[in-house]
Inverse folding.
């Protein structure tokens, strides 16, 4: 199987600080790929390079996207989104004042506009355009169902519990029809019950949709359960790359997580 | 009582005009967090466009009033919208991402530029226009004083209500409105889910300017005399209305506009007509001190 995302020699320097140092890895469309590492290992920086928030100092990020092979490092953030890369944030960024359903519809804005030929009639929702709108609502409903949130469709997004907001964020990202979904610490702050719901949603995305998932996480236990493939970073360098079992047994990973001379696990 | 009712009618008419202008301030503030001080000038230009259009239509012999007004309305809105779009494109967009005061100063510059431009192009003397709609309806006649509402006043209030209903629908239930609200809340995220943020901001300016042009047409009909300096005072009053209602809130802008109109009318009627502007701007000061979020504004929550 060809790689969905290929990261080659990715390096990001901020002045004298090298946050990500010569990292290379690949992610498959059929996998949940985890990028893990202790705090400050460069996970989020690596993520921001892939999703276009930063422009990497050195290196290439290649995506087998919707419209063929693209070099992500050359595109601005908004264009990257159009190539089929969706992301969520560590601190949830929903449109709080809008309902859950509206959050999912707004994510389909571009598709809706395309359906209406970018006309003013489409902007104000003319009848000829309602078919596209209905399809958008159907898709939104589908993802609400997958996220277990059908009952909350008309609630203001900001009033939902934390775990539910997380799932809305992922559902919203999926409404943009991504080929790659990037999740920044999706399990942070979730209780075990919410965490299990989240995993379920991730499995659905992996198994029933042609969308690869890249997630970063510093909580090992989460990553070990959901990921098929793990990349471990420490001080900006890649120290391990493999299946959860391989990574767990890797001495370099154990050292990075537990310290060199401190009490061994 | 009659006098009170008469001032109420006058105040509501005035308030409708302020409300329409205030919507432009509040929308731009909502989406960009800046006060578009050139907005009052767009309103003034709307008034001039209306006057020119009405005179031209009169000269070519289109005298059926409803038709002439409809054409004027469309033309004034379209041209003012073009002004709004251009102002944003030239004076604000290049400064986005600059320090916070930059677009504000730019706005003041645009405002002065437009005032002088109209003064040079149209002359400094006030321009009178013959009354377009005459006639009034007597609402109450108690022998002494009568309470009357002119057709112009009725038209102003009716068009305002119509526009507000249409506008509320636009914001709450169309894809455009959704995109606008999303952009207002989080521009980065809106761009990430595929909304063209620049386009959405442009449309916001276009809509605000079109509404200001409607207000411009109304003031031309209502007072029958306009000048190049008209936009300044009305602009600042509409801004006061937006602040009073809670800047960023659409219903707030309308409510604020109506209140400012009523305050102005009653103050002029019962106290002193010379001090009516003092009364209005005292409200601005009081609101800013005691209730900075306005009547319907939501308190700003600092994001962590």
């Amino acid at each position: 199987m060809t790689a969905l995302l290929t990261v080659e020699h990715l390096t990001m320097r901020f002045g004298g600080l090298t946050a990500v140092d010569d990292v290379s890895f690949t992610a498959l469309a059929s996998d949940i790929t985890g990028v893990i590492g202790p705090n400050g290992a460069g996970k989020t920086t690596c993520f921001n390079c892939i999703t276009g928030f930063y422009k990497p100092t050195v290196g290439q990020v290649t995506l087998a996207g919707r419209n063929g092979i693209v070099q992500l490092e050359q595109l601005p953030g908004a264009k990257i989104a159009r190539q089929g890369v969706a992301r969520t944030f560590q601190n949830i960024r929903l449109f709080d004042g809008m309902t859950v359903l509206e959050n999912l519809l707004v994510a389909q804005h571009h598709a809706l506009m395309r359906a209406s030929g970018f006309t003013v009639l489409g902007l104000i929702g003319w009848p000829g355009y309602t078919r596209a709108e209905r399809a958008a609502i159907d898709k939104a409903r589908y993802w609400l169902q997958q996220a277990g949130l059908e009952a909350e469709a008309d609630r203001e997004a900001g009033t939902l519990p934390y775990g539910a907001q997380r799932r809305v964020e992922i559902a919203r990202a999926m409404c943009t029809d991504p080929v790659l979904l990037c999740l920044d610490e999706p399990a942070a702050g979730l209780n075990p019950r919410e965490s299990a719901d989240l995993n379920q949603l991730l499995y659905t995305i992996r198994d029933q949709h042609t969308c690869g998932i890249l997630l970063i996480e510093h909580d090992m236990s989460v990553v070990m359960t959901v990921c098929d493939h793990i990349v471990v970073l420490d001080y900006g360098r890649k120290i391990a790359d493999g299946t959860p079992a391989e990574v767990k047994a890797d001495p370099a990973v154990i050292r990075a997580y537990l310290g060199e001379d401190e009490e061994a696990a | 009582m009659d006098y009170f009712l008469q001032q109420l009618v006058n105040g509501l008419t005035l308030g409708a005009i302020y409300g329409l202008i205030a919507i432009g301030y509040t929308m731009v503030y909502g989406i960009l967090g800046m006060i578009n001080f050139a907005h009052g000038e767009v309103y003034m230009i709307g008034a001039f466009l209306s006057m020119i259009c009405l005179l031209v239509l009169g000269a070519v012999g289109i005298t059926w009033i409803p038709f002439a007004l409809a054409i004027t309305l469309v033309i004034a809105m379209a041209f003012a919208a073009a002004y709004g779009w251009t102002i944003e494109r030239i004076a604000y967009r290049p400064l986005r991402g600059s320090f916070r005061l930059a677009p504000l100063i730019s706005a003041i510059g645009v405002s002065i530029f437009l005032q002088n431009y109209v003064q040079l192009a149209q002359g400094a003397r006030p321009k009178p226009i013959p009354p377009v709609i005459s006639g009034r309806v007597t609402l109450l006649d108690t022998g002494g004083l009568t309470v009357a509402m002119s057709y112009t006043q009725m038209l102003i209030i009716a068009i305002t209500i119509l526009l507000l209903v249409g506008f509320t629908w636009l914001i709450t239930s169309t894809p455009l409105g959704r995109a606008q609200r999303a952009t207002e809340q989080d521009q980065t995220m809106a761009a990430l889910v595929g909304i063209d943020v620049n386009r959405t901001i442009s449309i916001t300016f276009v809509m605000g300017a079109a509404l200001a042009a409607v207000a411009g047409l109304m003031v031309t009909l209502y007072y029958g005399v306009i000048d190049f300096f008209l936009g300044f005072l009305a602009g600042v009053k509409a801004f006061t209305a937006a602040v009073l209602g809670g800047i960023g809130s659409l219903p707030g802008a309308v409510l604020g506009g109506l209140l400012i109109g009523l305050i102005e009318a009653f103050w002029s009627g019962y106290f002193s007509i010379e001090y009516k502007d003092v009364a209005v701007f005292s409200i601005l000061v009081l609101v800013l001190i005691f209730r900075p979020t306005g009547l319907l504004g939501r308190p700003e929550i600092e994001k962590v």
In short: Residues 2-290 of chain B form a domain with the ABC transporter involved in vitamin B12 uptake, BtuC fold (CATH 1.10.3470). Residues 268 and 274 of chain B are 8 Å apart (CA to CA). Chain B has a mean pLDDT of 88.
